[in-house]
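Troubleshooting log. The previous run stalled partway through. Resubmitting the same three chains, unchanged.
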Amino acid sequence: MRRILAFCIATVTLAACAPGTTSGGGSAEQVEDKTLTYLYFTDGPDEQATRSLIADYEKKTGVKVDLQIVPFDNLEQRLQARLSGGNAPDVARLTDISPFRSDLLDLNKYQKAALDGQFIDGANAYIKGPAGELLGVPSDLTMNGPLVNVDQFKKAGVSLPDVSKPWKWDEMVTAAQKVQKANKTQYAIAMDVSGHRFSTMLSQFGTTFFSADGTSVGLDPQKATAAVKKFADLNASGVMPADLWLQAGTKYKAANEIFLAQQTPVYLTGNWQVSAFAKDATFTWAAAPNPCQEECGGFPGGKFMVSFKQSKRQQAAADFIAYMNSKESQERLAKEANFLPTRKDLIASGVDYPQRDADMKVFLADVSRTPQQDFATAYSPAFAATAKAAVEALGKVLAKSQSPEQAVEAIRAGAEKALKDTK
Amino acid sequence: MSSAHARRVKPWNQRLAPYLFILPNMLIFGLFVVYPAINNFNISLYDSRNGRDFTFVGGANYQELLSSEAFWSAARATVVFAVCFVVLTTVLSVALALLLNRRIKGRAFFRTVFFLPVVLSPVVVGLIWGWIFDRGNGLLNTVLTRIGLGQPGWLVDGGLAMTVVIFVGLWMHIGFYILIILAGLQGIDPTYYEAARMDGATSWQQLRRITLPLLRPTTMVVVILSLIAGFQAFDYIWTLTGGGPIGATTLMVQYIYENAFQSPIRYGLAAAASVVLFITVFALTLLNFLYGRRKEAT
Amino acid sequence: MSVQPVRPVQSPIKRTQWTSIGGGRVPSAGQVLTYAVLIGLTIVVLAPVVWAVLSSFKTQSELAQRPPALLPSSLAPTNYTEALSSFDFGLYLQNSVIVTVGATLLTVVVNTMCAYGLAKYNFRGRDVLFLVVLGTIMIPLQLIFIPVYQMAAQLGLVNSLWGLIIPPAATPTGVFLLRQYMLGIPDDLIEAARIDGAGEFRIFARIVVPLCGAALAVVTIFSVMWRWNDFLWPLIISQDPEKYTLPVALAQFNSQLSVPFNYILAMSVVSMIPVVVIFLLLQRHIVRGIANTGFK
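Second attempt completed without errors. Output:
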């Protein structure tokens, strides 16, 4: 017994010193070896486009870029470990930069002219540090919106709304139900299990998680409750697949399979599915404008390219990020992977897509209809945590263990906490 | 503790030998398990929102855990899961090993079959069973509907989801435990059976009086290993239910994983939870071990 | 423990038949029941696996089909060829084999030695050490992920196959299993060898190890399947694609927004095959080994 005690004491003594990280702080020793590591996750067609851009870059500059593709699920975990081991990649592509803010390199130090102020202003609150540092570059924009099964709409004799005259929520539901009946599909509307996708609905019902300046909770209880109620009703009546939400747990789950299997005529998702469906869908489909309620438009999202203070090749990393996000590169990437541009000049000149151009124009039209406040919410450092709380709260509503009012309260509380945590 | 019989002086090589034998293992072990574990305890006293910057908070993480509904929910689910898993694993692995130890045709075939799921990747296991148990479209409910048994919400109802998760755990791991018991059965001296047969003991009596008692040390191994596996279950559940519906199958490791690696990151809190988990399982294992030792002594 | 009247060593050596509960002939009703149970369970165990293999030939939209079809519309190996051609399968296979074989060898050697030290010697700190081993069995990597990684990074094991071989080698489970097993080996056997003048290591290598056949086989299988399917650790250790193992390479398909299950299934089937083959080979070997020598 004494020995065990002694062991315990030794353990506690050892533990008395602060947990150290091996990272070397802000000024990593720089090397020039003409190589770069780029930590990447892929959604499919973007990989090829990225590789071909990299190939050109290697030819032009002689820098060898090591593309390290990791599964999205483990991206943050892996990056966290590498940062704490003092072993960060030189460049990374992320959807959420907030857990890494204190480790990100100020790109303005190396490529201010090429990068600063070149991208949509909505993202500024998110990518700018307290002293105006440029911590990341929005490398593409996503826009949420519905995809519809055109074959099924035709068969049911239901017409689709014009791009410039979006339908109302109730019109969309009625239309979807008609199509459902005519085609005997399991559901009328399916939505990905995601707080981000639900934010689209919130936005259309006139509210968002955060206020327009992103500093406080902006969720309007009445409007949010209306949205949650609508969502709950649609699920309870079998218009939407409640099981999909309940069976997903706390994980993201796409409803793309249901749409691909033609079991729902309307699928609430976003532009990133376009290039994959162009390949996989065995029927005619199209993008439709987002439904309006109090507001029109969708909900934005996107990816970011960053480098790290730990990087031993900061100049090269910033150069590479500047290259990948130049007007020419972004246009190529957008065309090949059906991405939406983030550069102001590219948005102004427009992109002509070689495939599914009409669908992309629908998404672009929705970008301009999307309320500005949405950008503040989507680009809030507290968004990811709040979205997670929303998924949980909605699950409880669907399982009937919580009322819509309680769910809205839970989402509000989640947003408050997330804001406090990220301050 | 036990030094009374060490009086006889052993030659130096016998005194040195054990240390040399354990050295390589303990070295790797100390570096990659013990030290990080101590470090982990250390981290549990700090608050960290990104896993790299730390603020000392003392016992605050533990306090927060004790008052956290999500933690207790995960703790309850973990206990339910672990108890069911251990009991069923032990009973089934002994029963099946006894069956597989009989002189039957195709024994090697059956052993291989039962072992097959053990080698599958947990992700794939979760995926496949997810398709089978899906309420509306799953393979199982397709069959059940056809024979008029309705569509149970396997992964939609909390209790059923827990049952499914336990079942899939057994499906996946039982082959491994069967193998351990089989190895134990091989260690039982056949002369006991010969003697028993001469005394006219029935198969049942032989099972009760010889096989099961002599198998106890091996059974203990299975109990301890399955206990540990039960408290560690995570990856296939993550793909199968994601911890749902509404947290019903969120076990402790998932709770820790989510806090440590998903926004909002609470690295210190996760470390505290893992310390609690560790102490619990360690205490249980110790009890088991001491109990087993008493048996050995008598 | 040390001085005991010498009992006749209970004889490992001469058994030629398998033990079974009843030993003698089994009544046929029992036989039938046994087969019924085993065949029933075989179906439960195999059905999902077979279904997974069949599904690995389906296209993405076939997989999405509701209710699912039992058979794929064609057995064309499109998923296999497309998935295989999208990465350097040969290289990842080679890495996986090197890591699995290397780590298993190391594990078996260090675990067996350690188990022997803990089981058959009386020395200061033995019980504490054993409790530490036992205690750490229950620490999953998930829990101490970052500290372990920091250690590996400090030792320069990141981005090398050594980093996949060494850190997980000292499996407490293996030590525990082997120690429990060795407790059953009579001390007299070891004492007798000492009296004959055999050195400590010689006793270990020539007497103890051969008696642990079944336990070693279990640890080997355990280690093989563990290392082969290992995902989380290789994922952070192997950073360059040239250092990826199969599961890591496989998981690349897991994207944020849609997961091409058809590829994942196909690759899973491919990565499953080697372990099943190893098990089949080893399983025969264990059976024969036990039958011939009848250890213990």
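Takeaways: The domain at 80-293 of chain C is CATH 1.10.3720.10 (MetI-like fold). Confidence is low (pLDDT under 50) at residues 1-24, 287-296 of chain C.
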